[in-house]
Inverse folding.
């Protein structure tokens, strides 16, 4: 039987906040700036971009900066908004169910 | 023969900036707030803390927030300072030598 990892609320909050911020900044660059275009601009595969926006990928620091570059943003600008309501008390638990 | 990865300057700039910011905020919490103490406060092993401070680890988003929690900081505060001089043009290359 395949194990499925269930993310704790805090982890999912964080990944969702990251994806939402990505999508907001991508949309600010215009309707034609698709996930595929962001992939090209950041040097990452469009599936990676899609996963990150949906909050299903725990992105690394280097990938984060690639995405931010692709969005023509900066680290300070990217993280200034949207990350203050994460349930950090619940960041540490992970669960597995079969 | 063992392969050794040489990080591009941009990647190393980024990991160094992260480690430096960690260390600055850790030191602001007092001389007794060691890497080991930060490890306990963030739920990460002290070796992980040591690697991250030395810029030898490409930390993930979830680990980043654990560290920031351990420092009693916030994502927006952590990333507001120290990340603006990274050589992003050179972020994409990796080299391997034998």
């Amino acid at each position: 039987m395949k194990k499925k990892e269930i993310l704790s609320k805090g982890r999912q909050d964080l990944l969702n906040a990251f994806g939402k911020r990505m999508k907001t900044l991508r949309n600010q660059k215009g309707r034609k700036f698709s996930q595929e275009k962001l992939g090209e601009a950041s040097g990452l595969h469009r599936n990676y971009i899609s996963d990150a926006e949906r909050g299903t990928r725990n992105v690394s620091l280097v990938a984060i900066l690639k995405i931010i570059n692709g969005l023509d943003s900066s680290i300070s600008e990217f993280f200034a908004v949207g990350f203050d309501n994460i349930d950090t008390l619940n960041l540490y638990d992970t669960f597995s169910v079969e």
Q: What stands out?
A: Chain B has a mean pLDDT of 87. Chain B touches chain A through 27 residues (CB under 8 Å). The domain at 32-81 of chain B is CATH 1.10.260.40 (434 Repressor (Amino-terminal Domain)).
